[in-house]
Amino acid sequence: MRIASLYRYPVKGLSPERLTSAQLEANSYFPGDRLFAIENGPSGFDPAAPVHQPKIKYLMLMRHEALATLRTRFDDPSGDLVIARDGQEVLRADTTTAAGQGAISAFFEGFMPEALRGQPRLLRAPAGYRFTDSRSGFVSLINLASVADLEKRIGSGVDPLRFRGNIMIEGLPPWSELDLVGRELITASGLKLQVIKRIERCAATNVDPQSGARDLQLPKALMTAFGHVDCGIYCQITAGGRVAEGERFDLVERPAALGIT
User: Fold this and answer.
1) Burial category of 120 from C-beta neighbours within 10 Å (exposed 0-12, middle 13-18, buried 19 and up)
2) Could you say which of 48, 90, 151, 218 is the most buried, measured as most Cβ atoms within 10 Å of its Cβ?
3) What Cα–Cα distance (Å) separates residue 58 from each residue in 11, 71, 114?
4) Alpha-carbon Rg for the chain in angstroms
5) Three-class SS string for 192-246?
6) DSSP readout, 13-41?
7) Where are the beta strands (DSSP E) in 57-109?
């Protein structure tokens, strides 16, 4: 099981950023992932007492495919969020200042006014919290062989980035990752990931991540072809360690002495 590529999504619903390696910490999230969300009108989110909110309270691809036409980047040292459109930088704003946060709000007010239920506002996740779709969305893995099999079934190319996973893996048979729930994956660095659930897919995957076109019906295609809408798995980090492109995951064997199969 080889790591083909790594991605983080600093702002919920906005661009992926490819990484060559990452250091994962136990009982945490994928580093730099879903740190921010754009609130679509008052959401009730309280950073002092964060509670997981439905994704419809934020700008997100399931309803707002125009977001995919933006290219965004978060600069960790400066705290700047950079937004480009049609190959041109249109905003660089400091996420740590009121002025920068106001500039981000103003950008989205002008970019997609018809989609707004109120003033858009940049939210930053407090320590120990992230703006993931699932409460247990600590780290997500996508099997590239499953995506390739889905392509064959529907007769159309499917960009794996439609599934917005953190770790793209290869070397597994198609869909076999769905049977790993309850199993443990390890790397040579000592990283341990406990597979905790399959990922149910929504209409966000219908949006082409490059053009923003809503051109496929992937949840429907999954249900038609396989009888479920799952693609990918969520994992919990049980021991910290490093991941890097080209490294391997090994599957911990179940102890035969306990009669576990």
Assistant:
1) buried
2) 218
3) 11, 18, 14
4) 19
5) EEEEEEEEECCHHHHECCCCCCECCCHHHHHHHHHCCCEEEEEEEEEECEEEECC
6) TS--EEESEEEE-TTS-STTTT-EEEEES
7) 70-75, 80-85, 88-94
pLDDT at 255: 56
Residue type, 259: G
Both tokens of residue 241?
Answer: 């360690």
Question: What span, in angstroms and rounded, lies between the C-alpha atoms of 239 and 27?
Answer: 8
Three-state secondary structure call for residue 260: coil
152 three-state secondary structure: helix
Over the range 201-219, which residues count as b (16 or more CB within 10 Å of their CB) and which as e? bbebbbbbbeebeeebebb
Q: What is the pLDDT of residues 192-208, one digit of tens each?
A: 999 999 999 999 999 99
Supply 206's token pair: 């219908």
Q: In the predicted model, is pLDDT for residue 88 greater than 90?
A: yes
Q: Which residue has the tokens 């390739």?
A: 148
